Amino acid sequence: MTRHFLRDDDLSPVEQDEVLTLAAQLAGDRFGHQPLAGPQTVAVIFDKSSTRTRISFAVGIADLGGVPLIIDAQTSQLGRGEPIADTARVLDRQVAAIVWRTAGQTRIEEMAGASKVPVINALTDEFHPCQILADLMTVRQHKGKTAGLKLAYLGDGANNMSHSYLLGGATAGMHVAIGSPAEYQPDPAILAKAVEIAATTGGSVSWTDDASEAVSGADVVATDTWVSMGQETEAVEREAPFVPYAVTEQLIAKADADAIVLHCLPAYRGKEIDAAVLDGPQSVVWDEAENRLHAQKALLSWLLARNFSS
Ligand code: CP
Ligand code: NVA
Q1: Are residues 42 and 161 in the same domain?
Q2: Does one domain contain both 278 and 246?
Q3: What domain range includes position 77?
Q4: pTM of the model as a whole
Q5: CATH number of the domain within which 265 lies
Q6: Number of structural domains, the chain?
Q7: Which NCBIfam families does the entry link to (predicted)?
Q8: Any catalytic annotation for residue 140?
Q9: 162-198 residues labelled b (16+ CB within 10 A) or e (exposed)
Q10: Among all ligands shown, which has an atom nearest to the Cα of 131?
Q11: φ, ψ at 247 (rounded to 5°)
Q12: Of 61, 97, 253, 293, which cross-links 68 as Cys (Cβ 3.0–4.6 Å)?
């Protein structure tokens, strides 16, 4: 059966560890591992804007000896309504994997359901699992481990980053604390799934509307935009409720003194995070952005090895 990576819990704790371990190896030996030599092609499709994901997949596929085929969905028939499954059937006879950034999770599930090659979620409205692999790799680099550490995420508890921190963080054995307004809480089904995973890894998950409580004693503090792609018309109403969750120097002072700060980027200084924090000594966001490259190369390699051997 073809393995896909559509959400964070598609990797078991052991498998996530394998991918993160390989990512660290690849970071130290960028061109020494070329499973796509041939070269094979990987399709990377964007229904939404991207800087980091587009660059890191294009560079990473080339590093692995392959050819990236970057497709702007608006210029393809997919963007004109050709069925997702038909697109998958055309692609999977020619490419080694399909990477897709789209809106609804059901869309990428449909692509995976029709594809014989691995499908990778490059962000949906519900999850951003490639980002969390890079974030966990960054935590390992700076803290030496993930298990047992407290990760506080402040901001939109109902967005893709919050959901992926819940599932991916629980898989990594972290104590994930979400701090968000009550009207922007995580999806209860995803929270419940994270609780279930945490029970097997020694981690935990929690939600609170008290930003100070969420960040208290945290080893890792993370945030994200208050207005995700596709929510632009809600920009005004998405301002006031989130102000108490802004990652300011005052809020960061409640975390562990050695806490590191993550942000998937793009960041809006003065909104969800102060410039003094994003550009300050606790911020590791540029390592985090670089680690998209290494983590995604590891993920692609891992999935391809699984599918070739099955
Ligand atoms: N963090 C992230 O996914 O960035 P892009 O939207 O620029 O790809
Ligand atoms: N939550 C953000 C993440 C951007 C990388 C969005 O979906 O726009």
Answers
A1: no
A2: yes
A3: 8-127+292-305
A4: 0.98
A5: 3.40.50.1370
A6: 2
A7: orni_carb_tr, PRK00779.1
A8: no
A9: bbbbbbbbbbbbbbbbbbbbeebbbeeebbebbeebb
A10: 1
A11: -85, 95
A12: 61
pLDDT of the chain, 310 residues: tens digit per residue: 899 999 999 999 999 999 999 999 999 999 999 999 999 999 999 999 999 999 999 999 999 999 999 999 999 999 999 999 999 999 999 999 999 999 999 999 999 999 999 999 999 999 999 999 999 999 999 999 999 999 999 999 999 999 999 999 999 999 999 999 999 999 999 999 999 999 999 999 999 999 999 999 999 999 999 999 999 999 999 999 999 999 999 999 999 999 999 999 999 999 999 999 999 999 999 999 999 999 999 999 999 999 865 4
Task: Name the phi and psi angles at 267, rounded to 5.
Answer: -105, 150
Residues 274 and 189 in one domain: yes
Question: Is 53 annotated as ligand-binding?
Answer: yes
Which of 40, 131, 282, 296 is catalytic? The answer is 131
- Is residue 74 a part of any domain in this protein? yes
Residue 244, number of CB atoms within 10 A of its CB = 15
Going from the Cα of 139 to the center of ligand 1, the distance in angstroms, rounded, reads 18
